[in-house]
Every structure is written in C-alpha cells, then in structure tokens.
Write a structure and sequence with these properties.
With 151 residues, the protein is of the alpha+beta class. It has two domains: 1-30; 32-150, Immunoglobulins (Immunoglobulin-like). The chain has helices at residues 2-29, 59-64; strands at residues 34-37, 42-44, 52-55, 66-71, 76-77, 80-81, 90-93, 95-96, 101-104, 120-129, 140-142, 146-150. The protein is elongated, with a radius of gyration of 21 Å.
Length: 151
C-alpha cells in the first residue's frame, strides 16, 4: 500500500518540477523591451540628435524588430503610448545592435513643430511583436513609458 502512496507523491513532485521549469519560458515571452537611454526625465537640447536605446533579448524582437513611439501627448490606450497625428513625434523601427541592444537616432528635421526642434515634454516607449501571448492586445509586448524634455 505504501508503494501506491509513494508513486502518487513522486508523480506530483515531477509534475511540479515540470511546471516550474516551464514557467520562466512563459513569463519571459511577455517581457517587453527595457529602456536604457535617454534616462527618465532626461533633458535634451533642441536641435540635437539623441540616441534612444533599449535592450530586448527576446526571439521575437530579433524576428520582427523593435519599434519606438515618441509622442508629445501622453495618451495611453491598453498600456501603449499613442502615436501623434502630426509631425511632433516619431514612430520607427530600431536598429539591432549586439547583445540584444536596439537603437534609434531620429533624423534632425528643421521644421518648427518637430519634437527635436520644439521645447516641451515628450514620452517614448518601445515594443516588439509576439502573438503567442494570449493576454496581450494587438500582439505588442511593450516597455514602460518614459518621459524626456527638450529645452
């Protein structure tokens, strides 16, 4: 009789180990990019070209690219920063570098409503695509939103 009880406990322990081993893979699938630079509340001189950088080591970042949104309005819908409808922000893919790092260096347009020419507070966010996570809307795995100021 004790053999059957020991077998059930061994089977339950094995199932628990398998669940724990699978958990990091499921959790890492939903991890978004980590914002590196510019830092939170950074101050950028107007007319300069900062480099935006993130770290994202996910397979889908490599497969589908990492995207950046820069906006003059902090409008958030479902955790995503909304793209401006005018020239006061940016939306682009980021360039892949070594070790899961991605960068974006915006062009230096000179029209007065462009965010690098217009003093004010702006927000930025990065995301990659991953449709395998059922709880994610629009397949976008997003980073936190960070602000910076152009002076």
């Amino acid at each position: 009789m004790q053999h059957h009880g020991l077998g059930r406990h061994l089977l339950a322990a094995l199932a628990l180990v398998l669940i724990l081993l699978a958990a990091p893979a499921v959790a890492s699938a939903a991890v978004g990019p980590t914002l590196l630079t510019p830092s939170k509340h950074a101050v950028i001189a107007h007319g300069t070209r900062p480099t935006f950088s993130v770290r994202d080591r996910s397979v889908n970042a490599r497969k589908y690219e990492v995207w950046i949104t820069i906006s003059s309005k902090k409008r958030v819908k479902h955790g995503e920063l909304q793209i401006d409808r005018g020239p006061s922000g940016a939306f682009s893919h980021m360039r892949r570098r070594a070790h899961g790092r991605y960068t974006y260096r915006p062009p230096l347009y000179t029209f007065p409503t462009y965010f690098l020419q217009r003093p004010g507070t702006y927000w930025w966010q990065a995301h990659h695509i991953d449709c395998s996570v059922p709880t994610v809307r629009n397949c976008h795995i997003v980073s936190p939103i960070r602000s910076f100021r152009v002076v």
